Amino acid sequence: MPAQQSEVQTARINLVENASQRFYETVPLGFASGIVGIGVVGIMIVGGTIIGSKDTRLVNCFPTKIHNPYVNPYVDKDQVAIKKYISKRPGFSLLSTPGTEAGNAIRVWLGQGAGNKIMSAFGNTNSTLYDGTTSKGMISGLARDITETFVGTTATLVIPSNDSTAWYYPDAGVLTMIADADFPGNAGFTTTGTFVHLDGYAFIMTTDGKIWNSDLSSITSWTATNFISAQMSPDKGVGLSTYKNKIVAFGKESIEFFENVNNPLGSPLQRIPELFIKLGSPNQNLITNIKDTLIFVASSSGGSYGIYMMDNYQAKKVSYSELDALLSQVGISNFTASSVRIWGKPLFILHSTNRTYVFSPEDSLWCEWGSTYPLWYKVTGDTTENVYSISNSTSASVVGKVFNVNQNNIQYQDNGTNFTMSIQTSKIDLGDTKRKRLAKFHVIGTINAAANSLDISWSDDDYLNFHAIRSIDMTKEHQFLNNLGIFRRRVFLLSNFSSQSLRLEAIELDYVGLET
User: Fold this and answer.
1) Is the pLDDT of residue 439 over 90?
2) Strand pairing class (255-260; 246-251)
3) pTM metric for this prediction
4) DSSP bridge partners of 315
5) How far apart are CA 11 and CA 15, in angstroms?
6) How many other CB atoms sit within 10 Å of the CB of residue 31?
């Protein structure tokens, strides 16, 4: 008996709201990823094949929002006041080549007289500090971070080293080691993490859980009794951060909060016991914040990992279980965390040699970034939301270089090379497991002025095999494909390999139900 056709129906799938993710399957992506030969237990990326994911994958993009000024959400209940898009991430362009070794740390020096100086540290054994491309001297060991403060009225950089020394560089001064015998690194203690500056004090943690502070209004003077111990739980110290106006002390399995109460002797800090959290962080490189957004990879006494965001002094989990498992498989020591603001949106960047995961706290959405040589080992930004980064790769094409995203001249290439943005959907059955004929496939997105195409492929067998690519011209007003065959459940893969921008909102499917 021939199939009976129903009337044409239209289904709209919003690409942002369709996002869900899982791992541990083989997925032929249908395009060259630019990442070849990276192998991890259970995960491998070779050309266009990724062993490690099904369902939605958002690669080299991030969510954006556009407010419609003509819609009053309190009056026009049926109108959309905020439109959500998936946008191609900006590329990281070469800015300068200060060094010849791997990147260690980077900071935009906002308080310095001229403002927005790009300070970076490069080294394989000892770090050299650069102002732009000018060397300002070498420290012993490798820089863990570059922080800034004021000593009196002098803008000053402070640099903790992995050999437990610490260094400072005052504006128009000389890079110098903190020589005070009472600085904990000089007194036989092992420092960990970075400096935190609050109310005229510099604070740093040691691995025995002590929080040490400088003398008031000084970076060079330290006192042997100026410390307080994080001791609500027996633990090893990992590092310090800030949340609101509090200092956050991370251990391996615990988090404590401290506030400045101006004690006349010893540490000016006082513990806030009611804010204790029974989670910690595996190492200092997995804690990052941007303004009042504190995100960190957490470890617990059970040996598991997860990614958490501080929400009103409570740790809120933002990762999914498969990503947690991946942290263990890849090896937690291979990851570093950074945070940055792009187009007004704060983003958390969790980077390993193999893969990079990017989280948008505003959207509670994870994306993946990839490049031939990831350029965002450490990332920083300035007040106009320009972004600056370094790579810790020793490849000749990226070693010793500073990269940037210039808001006034956005590029969609990494170090001069195109990268692929891709969106892979979860399985779509339109609420009906019967066969359907797909008459037309629409893309809802922006119209490009320059030549740009979007490649479309699809799978009807749970991501195992993908149909040959068909392309849509994104310069056209109407962006669609006709006659895409019959399916019960279908996955779509949208990809773009160009040096052009791309912003997509949704796909629309015109289909006819078939009855047999």
Assistant:
1) yes
2) antiparallel
3) 0.88
4) 310
5) 13
6) 18
